């Protein structure tokens, strides 16, 4: 066991006046299993790179361990997998690799295939196996579950649960609950560490936020009351002070000593009320810095004259002469949200493109209701470019409403002046989802919409779908999201 000490960490990118981190202090035990969370754009990957010494910074990062980063870059993917893994962990024995492969449920024959021939999930698991065999290293694991199917995510979660000494960046609530014992949250104002998994952290955060909101409301009322009291007392003190000299032609003489005493007493009360008001204002200023404003989203659904919108009977999807999946039978009625599940390569994305009308070869019968309008969110966002205004115009949606939705999803206004190609992957996903929410459609087809999207935004999107009940077909590997959103499920099998 050793410690990672961070003191006074301050960092901003060259040419930027905005600080990513300012005067951050904390301590980490290298035996901990930590989940790193925070909204898109908060600097999670930047933080990992600072630990690795990739950027210059102010402050101190002190540790006796070496930091190793996942995903590992593989220079020559044509090599045998075992040779790739030996380069990563040259001191490990073959039997150790076999042991890790067994834990990750990877066939041993994978070792003697070229790395490029492995599926994305197999590559991810193989690299994790090698990285955890490196001695005296603290692992920095950056979003290992993107594009992994639900079964593979569960395997990776169980694997990480058996390990220690790592920080994992993940937006998958189920995985974090499975494998971490501490949470590092990159907040709006600071970085905090809390013992427990994501669920316990979120419960504590909601409780803390509510306490701060209640205290803030109480202090606002106190400030208003004290301000009013101080003002009234000052006015009375001024009137009493003037009365020392009596009223002109009144023929009466005031007891100036007595009146002066009353005036001073009233002034003291006024100053006391003002001091209490200032103290309340100072206390109020310490609140609400880290509260995440998750505003309510909405979606504009259309109603079709037919209650039956989609129906597939004995459909098989083909790539050339090869059948990807066969005997697919499904029906979709208004208000239903269909979750399409299956292992990678089982044809999930192809099925979504077929329903969307996108040039997929198939056999069987496909029925679509007349005049059906579909909003489609593809899995890949790498093609996105241009301004947000151009994106809204091309999609035929209201630009102001579109940008308002992005702000509600946590995007800063400064992003609006950039080309979408410069956005992070999570921000690009938010552009796609916000655009779809602004489209008026009968069916919303989303292909892995939550990849790279932060947990708070996932829960926000989840809530709007549950509340507004649009008709949907979606592929998503976030187990919590699927369980909460889907009203029906179809499982595809590879042929």
Can you give a write-up of this model?
The strands form four sheets. A six-stranded mixed sheet has the order 5-6-7-3-8-9, with helices on both faces. Strands 14-15-16-12-17 form a five-stranded parallel sheet, with helices on both faces. The protein has 495 residues and is α/β, with parallel strands linked by helices. Helix 11 (399-408) packs across helix 12. 39% of the residues lie in helices and 22% in strands. It has 14 helices and 17 strands. It has helices at residues 44-51, 81-88, 94-103, 120-131, 150-161, 173-179, 198-242, 256-285, 348-356, 388-395, 399-408, 425-438, 455-468, 479-485; strands spanning 3-11, 21-29, 33-37, 58-63, 66-70, 137-142, 166-169, 182-186, 191-195, 308-319, 322-333, 337-341, 361-368, 374-377, 443-447, 472-475, 488-491.
Name the strands of the widest sheet in spatial order.
Answer: 5-6-7-3-8-9
Q: What average pLDDT do the residues reach?
A: 85
Low-pLDDT stretches are none
CA-CA gap between termini: 49 Å
Q: Name the helicity range.
A: 25-40%
Strand-residue proportion: 15-25%
Global outline: globular
Gyration radius, rounded: 30 Å
Structural class: alpha/beta
InterPro entries: AAA+_ATPase, ABC_transporter-like_ATP-bd, ABC_transporter-like_CS, ABCF_ATPase, P-loop_NTPase
Pfam family, one: ABC_tran
GO molecular function, one term: ATP binding
Keywords: ATP-binding, Nucleotide-binding
